[in-house]
Amino acid sequence: MRGENDCQNMMFSYFSPEERVPARHPLRAIKADADQVLAQLSGTFDAMYSRMGRPSIPPERLLKAQLLIALYSVRSETLFCEMLDYNILLRWFLDMNLEEPSMDATTFTKNRDRLLEHEVAMKFFDQVVRLAQNRGLLSDDHFTVDGSLIEACASLKSFRPKGEDPTNRPSTDEDPGNPTVNFRGEKRSNATHASTTDPETKLIRKGPGKESKLSYHAHALMENRHGLLMDLYVSEATGTAEREAACQMLDRQAGLGISAKTLGGDKGYDTKDFVAALRERAVTPPVSANTKRKGGSAIDGRTTRHAGYAISQRIRKRVEEIFGWMKCIGGFRRTRFRGRDRTQLQGWLVGAAYNLLRMAHLKRPVAPAT
Predict the structure, then answer these.
(1) How do beta strands 212-223 and 229-236 pair?
(2) pLDDT in tens, 15-38
């Protein structure tokens, strides 16, 4: 018998979002891990808010919403709040019932300074790493480091001479909001110019023949056992930022009780200063040898003669998967915020989403072979 559409609306609803989410949905494992981590931050959340006044939206909900934005490649917080109105899966993940109204996008903006002040994103990321460590998923000895450029939330048109009076800028058309700017023949550098939109960003290019862009430098520290992200640091884009950030991340991990024995990397880390800095920290540097560098490679047979060197060179390529996911899926190819601190906050949250997703896949049981 042919069915027909019945457009009559039901007066009552007798199901909950929990019933609509499949038992084997991958978000179930991520939600369980996220809730476990957030429970460890309850004391920090208590210190963030006053004991008086109107109750706010729970900070746990805001952080979990940022995870969903990264996991589902939502391009903005405004769009996410719109999706939250009709997406049952998102409501279930945030512990919202079907009648509860959606959040307003300004909620994220008003609470961002509070998250920065109390370093909540960094603490959340560190708790995710600690959860992986407690499950035996991390390597305690062998790590890899790499860097990548993150486009800034600023246009090249904003890269103007320092000290320039905005009223004296010549305009070639009658569009004050988005004027045509001709940079032909003008020499621009970070020493003489700065972005009026985001002064902390720098003009840099990825390599010879590539176009220059206003960017930040993101640095990732990966453990070699399962390719989980151990640390993420956002810095100004300079020629020495990768090596300086690698030492800072190693020192921060040492303060958390994790001491590396080896640290792999690409040819950009093959410098005498960086190799010497690693050896001072009792870390073996199995970085890729740059034999074309003037003066030769900084590593020698003390490192390359071991079988572990070839293993490290093979495994270090996994760090590209982290940046690939964070940029293509997590929306971190171009930051949505101005300033290094806010870009760092976004990096912590996208990195935490990557680790939670990776951990969910690692503990998923493998189907028996047929």
Answers:
(1) antiparallel
(2) 788 888 888 899 999 999 999 999
Give the C-alpha separation, 30 to 253, whole Å.
Answer: 24
Three-class secondary structure of residue 351 per DSSP: helix
Element (H, E) at 203: strand 202-205
Q: What residue spans define the domains of the chain?
A: 18-48+57-117, 139-152+214-337
What H or E segment, with its residue span, contains residue 230? strand 229-236
> Does residue 219 contact residue 359 with C-beta atoms inside 8 Å?
no
Contact 352, 344 (CB under 8 A): no
Mean pLDDT of 165-185: 71
Better-predicted residue by pLDDT, 302 or 353: 353
Taking the CB of residue 259, how many other CB atoms lie within 10 A of it? 13
Query: Would residue 171 be called left, alpha or beta, if left means φ above 0 and alpha means ψ between -120 and 50 degrees?
Result: beta
Identify the H or E element spanning 101: none
Query: Scanning the structure block, which residue is given the tokens 């390599």?
Result: 207
CA dist 97 and 15 (Å) reads 10
Cα(227)–Cα(223) distance, integer angstroms: 6
Pairing of strands 202-205, 212-223: antiparallel
Highest CATH level, class, for 139-152+214-337: alpha beta
* End-to-end CA gap in the chain: 39
In this prediction, residue 365 has a pLDDT band, given cuts at 50, 70 and 90, of low
d(CA 277, CA 279): 6
Does pLDDT of 300 surpass 70? yes
Contacts of residues 332-339 at CB distance under 8 Å and 24 or more positions apart, as own/partner, are 332/70, 332/150, 332/218, 333/150, 333/151, 334/150, 334/151, 334/152, 334/153, 335/150, 335/151, 335/152, 335/153, 335/216, 336/76, 336/153, 337/153, 338/152, 338/153, 338/154, 338/197, 338/198, 339/198, 339/200
